[in-house]
Amino acid sequence: MNNLFKKPEFYLFLIIVALVIFFSFSTDNFFTLENFVDLLISYSFLGIMAAGMLVVLISGGIDLSFTAIATIAQYVMAIIIINYSGNLVSAFLVAGIIGIFLGSINAFLIYYLNAPAMIITIATLNLFYGVTIFITRGKWIYNFPDWFNQSHNVFSFTVGETNYGISLPVILLVLVFILTHIILRYTILGRKIFAMGGNIEAARRAGFNLLSLNIFVYSYIGFLSGIGSVGQVLTLHSVQPNAIVGRELEVIAATVLGGASLAGGAGSVLGTAMGVALLAIVWNGLIIMGVSSYWHKVIIGLIIISSVSINAYNRKRNA
Amino acid sequence: MFKKNNDKNLLSIHSLYQKDPTLSILVIAFLLIIILLFSFYPGEVLTANNFQSMAFQLPELGILSLAIMITMLSGGINLSIIVTANMAGIVSAFVMTRMITESSTGSPIPIIIIAILAGWLVSILIGIFNGVVIAYIGVSPILATLGTMTLVEGISIVITKGHVVSGFPKEYQYLGNGDFLGIPVPFIIFLALALCVSILLRKTPFGLANYLIGSNETATRFSGINVKRTLVTTYALSGLFCGIASTIMTSRFNSAKAGYATSYLLITILISVLGGVDPYGGFGKIGGVVLAIFILQLVSSTFNFLGLSSHLSIAIWGLLLLITIGLRNIKSTSI
Lengths: 319, 335
Known about the structure:
By secondary structure, chain A is mainly alpha-helical. Chain A is built from 14 helices and two strands. In chain A, strands 1-2 form a two-stranded antiparallel ribbon.
């Protein structure tokens, strides 16, 4: 029990419960099944990317280029699907492979150039994104085949009189969370990632292959960004060049809110899921309450600063 | 950490290259670009007109680079430089547009001075906030300044409702657009500031402490230096530089807005790294950074002249950053 109070996840859970109660009483439309289903669908992409970011942060790194990777994966996938047909499996396969490829470029650069991951990935973010927009001229893509647009809903159920659909992105999100949790908690690979993030010098001397660990970590976030971005296309029925890039901070914020540390070696899938939920609930609640959108950044900024401060303060006190 | 050579060994008689490889590579690169431009586009890029417009464009980027550089020297980073500059600009703009009306008589200069100081004060306060969160609470600089970036940008949007604030007195516009004996005023401000920062970093206890924290924070703390106070000063100065940059920027554009110059963040990091600042902190000189600013401005003006798409230039900046880090790494492992 004493242990429970020390966990950041516990406080996060209390905050989420408090927020849900607050928004439920102050608005009519927040505490409805419809709203929760919508929230789940619209935040599944963020959640998938956050799972990738969690693994990167645990390893002691950071990746700012995954949004550009997701955009490239979307474009290539869309061009192949529209021009050469294919099926859903090939769409995910193409996007996943592109993610893995670009992610491993990041890993090689970070390992061999021996510079902070943040600076390397700021560089690759601009390189990837600049080239993509230059080649595609920032064109939107709409004309997906019907079978593609229709594969969004996997099954639907009816409560009362309303019909709800469980969509592919949500199922993807659940699978990604389970997979990430298993990798981090129950595999040697996961233990090694924690060890590398906790103390890289110790990991090196223990004989870990840091290059291959790096490759795994950065390809993993690339892979998740790739397949997550296909899910997003399924929801939006379009590829938009500026829909993803610029949301890096949201993903990092969600992960850090969930207890991951930029110093590495700490974090959990449960925490990340709650971090995403917290952001989603605040954003959604503010919109339903009718708070002017001008205030959203202020409030998110305050949440980020106060939560990282509380985390850092606790860590300092316990150390 | 161990492979860092102490290139301050002035006693040994070596060529400039061995004394300061970064600086000499930059000088060579600078000359090479000039020669290339002369031979491929004679009398087109390197004209007196172009030089003057470069001297007007370069200072804001240069001063913002100084703002990010001093935090990188301390082993941190300040990702909130652009939003700090925008916020300072908006505050100055509000003071000027509210206090100077059509009916007001007399010289607007006192109000301009108040406006500028108000903007700088806000930027210093943002810097102090960053410093306190980083040094006293112990948040990593990336996260702290990312948080401030969101918060400050949000506040800027709230107070301006996302609109442009414009219309400043012509005395204010002189700071960004005027010239003194043919030399652009912003360029003079930039050189003066670079000189001050150079002295500050090399000749004062604060400068030394800032370098020491960047190379080994724990050792610095045990050597009796007040690390926390030094870091707060570092980020406060970084904020002040953003304020100074904003004065030039708003005066040049004759307006202030929440979303100006967002692409500068990458370029300032590129300039610092290109100029020889170690991304892990502790090493880097003003001379290198100033040279890097000149090179970047030259390349950027060439891109403009060639009519390159802005997206392609951003991609090239990213690539250049990787190449710079790569070259330096090859250098440091071969020594």
